[in-house]
Amino acid sequence: MQTMGKWVFRQAGVQHLALEETAVPTPGVGEIVVRVAAVALNYRDLRFINGGQSGTALTLPATPGSDLAGVVVATGAGVTRFSEGDDVLGTFWAGWIDGECPPEARVLGGSLPGVLAQYVVLNEAWAVRAPRTLSAIEASTLPCAGLTAWFALVEKGTVHAGQTVLMQGTGGVALFGVQLARAHGAQVIVTSSSAAKLRRMRELGATHGIDRSETPDWDRVAREMTGGQGVDHVFELAGGDNLGASLRALRQGGRISLIGTLDGYNMSLPSIPSFIGRPTIQGIGVGHRRAFDDLVRAVDTLGLKPVVDTVYAFDQLPAALAHLERGAFGKVVVKVGD
Amino acid sequence: MQTMGKWVFRQAGVQHLALEETAVPTPGVGEIVVRVAAVALNYRDLRFINGGQSGTALTLPATPGSDLAGVVVATGAGVTRFSEGDDVLGTFWAGWIDGECPPEARVLGGSLPGVLAQYVVLNEAWAVRAPRTLSAIEASTLPCAGLTAWFALVEKGTVHAGQTVLMQGTGGVALFGVQLARAHGAQVIVTSSSAAKLRRMRELGATHGIDRSETPDWDRVAREMTGGQGVDHVFELAGGDNLGASLRALRQGGRISLIGTLDGYNMSLPSIPSFIGRPTIQGIGVGHRRAFDDLVRAVDTLGLKPVVDTVYAFDQLPAALAHLERGAFGKVVVKVGD
Amino acid sequence: MQTMGKWVFRQAGVQHLALEETAVPTPGVGEIVVRVAAVALNYRDLRFINGGQSGTALTLPATPGSDLAGVVVATGAGVTRFSEGDDVLGTFWAGWIDGECPPEARVLGGSLPGVLAQYVVLNEAWAVRAPRTLSAIEASTLPCAGLTAWFALVEKGTVHAGQTVLMQGTGGVALFGVQLARAHGAQVIVTSSSAAKLRRMRELGATHGIDRSETPDWDRVAREMTGGQGVDHVFELAGGDNLGASLRALRQGGRISLIGTLDGYNMSLPSIPSFIGRPTIQGIGVGHRRAFDDLVRAVDTLGLKPVVDTVYAFDQLPAALAHLERGAFGKVVVKVGD
Amino acid sequence: MQTMGKWVFRQAGVQHLALEETAVPTPGVGEIVVRVAAVALNYRDLRFINGGQSGTALTLPATPGSDLAGVVVATGAGVTRFSEGDDVLGTFWAGWIDGECPPEARVLGGSLPGVLAQYVVLNEAWAVRAPRTLSAIEASTLPCAGLTAWFALVEKGTVHAGQTVLMQGTGGVALFGVQLARAHGAQVIVTSSSAAKLRRMRELGATHGIDRSETPDWDRVAREMTGGQGVDHVFELAGGDNLGASLRALRQGGRISLIGTLDGYNMSLPSIPSFIGRPTIQGIGVGHRRAFDDLVRAVDTLGLKPVVDTVYAFDQLPAALAHLERGAFGKVVVKVGD
């Protein structure tokens, strides 16, 4: 029997993570086995390990991780979408193919086992073909952060040239947001309380930066940047009272994407001055497989390169999670195989 | 010179309303003169008279009223949409024809003069043909309350048979909401703290009523009424902390219409448990002329009869406003002409 | 081993259909076994049996039939959507869940085995819960004819009250079209060359009928019926040169649904007079599972009863197909079990 | 009284065009007077002059021309959208603001007087602000050709990165189509029977060219270029039997824009093999003012430069029309003022 390494925790808490030796899985009917090359981490992995993932009862022992890039090494009976040797990415939502999210859809590294292992078995419906133009490390950043930005901007927001999109902060979704909005000819305003990060966002393509530590009334300044009309779309990534300012920055009939990758936050919708603009406020929870296929095609056409902060070796997961916790500019990725 | 009566206030406050004698207007280029038959009142008329209408600087003297039914008695040069003798309704938004609301659109009885007069002059673009099947008194209820419900349900919400829509309260928009949702084959849940009003809503077609005074956790009960899936669409007419309950009552991917007829309210968006459902929260501010034409056609096809609570004579405006203030079931209408 | 009856043909042609004895299937991983209660026939079943189904290489022996109602009698490992005893309907498209049709989707009684058998095995993703308010015989008419009408009218056409929809002919899709359009408050014009069938369509709810044998310029008459504006939506079910007339009957910006249940026809798009109206011409090929769930909910809410022409016993399939071939008003259904 | 030059014809036919001296217009209520700087020509101007414009009774004498760039030199009473000195473009459709085209909308140089004059008077609703980044000559190309491409691609087609759009031929709309599709990250295939023009299209950004004179089965080759999936969107600019090939080149659920700038053509919709893909076939007739504002914003953001073939002086209109008739690569523009 072939064995492999897999990260497991038997009690909630990062300190209980252990790299265990276990059997390489074999594919059942309709399943594929993927040799994992890279796993990108998300903040929700930390919450999951710490036992606080919302809406998901933690069943122990558990393996964390949702965003994998790898190669198909075995296929079960009836598999038609993939062959051995195909480079694939997992879908964050297992079973959300297109349209609305069906009740039976589940999350890898959530109610389904996670992917921080050398091999994983997936239903063939839970994977897409990887982009031709990215390394596995780069591609592993797409399933959650990349698709969330794409879904908000393109699938729901139908971004187009000449619009102005505002990104709050400089997290992983905001970085993809800048790159994708620019690739569609839109202007991008970024808010951050770090001048250094604003500089890096401008290098990435952002057309304007607002330093929130110097400009607390950033919504007024953002509105001025659009000639008084207001921005077309805000990525609401901060939460709290911030939503009021987002509404004030918005044009008549504009759009706010509430982005929480499954974890919400308290926020307050303000009164008269901001409300009268007929906004559309849209909750975003990653996205479906068809949109993921669209994103992969776009990445290859555009030559878009995801921003990776640091790559950690497979046995360095705790260090990678510590990095994630103290903040990063770009994705933190665990290199699993070759 | 022909004269007419017109309601005017020279200081903010209902007590300063006076029925004045003034010249009947004549139409300019592209304008029509309408002999007013009926004006339906809205709560915003009270705020306007009291000087508190949001976003609108009150220029005195002023005439209140936005929702008129009447007949065209004169047409200016270049008018092509109407002829003398046509029964018409005014559009709440003057200059919002279709699609997005353009910045130049204004409101009758807001930044434009109101319609509580025996004759009014309107740009021909600010009126639609009245339904064939309603009296002027009934038809006068359509421009604000009727169109708001239609816009939320049909134009934005694409209601269809088998859905469940939840109406908060028993105001004018909620009443139209019940009638229109039922006319499209949807089920309707109404919440109210009055058992008597719930009874009347059921007579109007509502399929379920929840008495909020007896069932404070109405969202749980509403969800049960849909077999646990959640309702498809909530008309958020209460504001405040209520929005949290609305989100809890909603299905995955459901819709909340924030309805305020131009006046907002403080409300809070709740955290995790309700947020993960990818809701669409849509601000509604009445609607455009093309949708109004659609509504008129629907009223005639359906034989839908608006609910009128009480009709007041033209010189009884203060009594009508007092009625509005203490609450009504159905619209309060001022009969102006014959 | 339990055995059952199944219709099989080993050469193309209705005369080669034979009722064979074979083993009752057992469910694999993710599969359900359904005891079939009723199968509704479609014209495409005849073409399939005669070897002419487009785009599908006929692999013999084969079993025809796509539209089944039945009850779950066994579930395989990993099944979560259904339990034994659930009343279900098959989906015409196996694997089209929502949104766009993925390339891997296939058709029961097409590239997948048909359902004219006492038991069938289905992936659990290929079924929906049956409506509570219909018999199995009635419900079996929904998967193809019912869903096609629903998908064109509601999912793609967002029908609403006050619109006018025009149905060409009196086939199965047109009958559902009349019932569903009426249930959403729309008016319906039907064209047919049979006065008797027009009478029955009016009984079913159609608001207007046009006898094409007496009124060859039916498009002109249809336009008059809408006060000159043109109809909002045409179900193009006739093909050929007819599309030109459909465009002439249509309003500015109206919609034509090209409905062929997978088999096309030659048709010509006419020139200037009809083209300038910015039509949307939409090809319809049945629909997806999420819309089917919506339809089932609508049927239960509305109490809609499908029109069944004649019910045949399971061993009378050849007679049922002969009936189909000579024409029916409503669906021809084979009763398989109890 | 100030006078100006204006092109007039008193009989149908280019040979009857005469440059006449007439009074400079003055603005009425709600109107602006524009000093015309440039007028771009369209093929429909030729048809109009030759008396063959579809659906429009030619009233003589008449002035041709629809696409103007100029500067506001006078404003009538009640004008709020513009001030003297504003650079503006006329809207092709006078009175189509947003959403659906209302019946009262008319065309400049169609049922309304044309703009080949040194000064024109327009309702203020029939103009938009010119882009900051283009000369008047460049900007004059936007109202018809530019907006048609934008409307098909962005407003109706919601183009996004990674898609493949196919342009038939190298006319004015196709040129804008290439530039705008590329600006949204899409790939573009162009078909033409001129190798030289295909070269120029590649210089403009087209990713692939197919020489129809060498590759009559261009649809097969186009499909191969997309890895067998089919293209996402075809600009159908050729008409005739070509539509069949367009459908064969299209992916499942793809879009065809029928573009005719108000003049249709005979075309045939083919049978089975192409039909089963659930296409959306959308008639395009230029577009509305809100989309035009969006286009102007996009042009400024992108720095997009329209392709101008040749500029003619105001008194050289007949030579400009002759150029148009024999074909151009880019727009033919008449320089009217400075």
Query: CATH class of the largest domain in chain A, please?
Result: Alpha Beta
- The CA-CA distance between the termini of chain A, in Å, is 21 Å
Q: Portion of residues in helices of chain A?
A: 25-40%
Q: What's the architecture of the largest domain in chain A, going by CATH?
A: Alpha-Beta Complex
Mean pLDDT of chain A: 92
* CATH homologous superfamily classification of the largest domain in chain A: Medium-chain alcohol dehydrogenases, catalytic domain
Gross morphology of chain A = globular
Please identify the structural class of chain A as seen in this structure. Answer: alpha/beta
Query: Which oligomerization state do the chains in this entry correspond to?
Result: homotetramer
Largest interface: A-B, 34 and 34 residues
As residue ranges, the low-confidence spans of chain A are 261-265
How many distinct domains of chain A?
2
- C-alpha-based Rg of chain A, rounded: 20 Å
User: What is the CATH topology descriptor of the largest domain in chain A?
Assistant: Quinone Oxidoreductase, Chain A, domain 1
Main pleated sheet of chain A: 7 strands, mixed
**Strand content range of chain A:** 25-35%
InterPro entries (chains A, B, C, D): ADH-like_C, ADH-like_N, ER, GroES-like_sf, NAD(P)-bd_dom_sf, Zinc_ADH-like
Domain Enoyl reductase (ER) (chains A, B, C, D): 13-334
Protein name (chains A, B, C, D): NAD(P)-dependent alcohol dehydrogenase
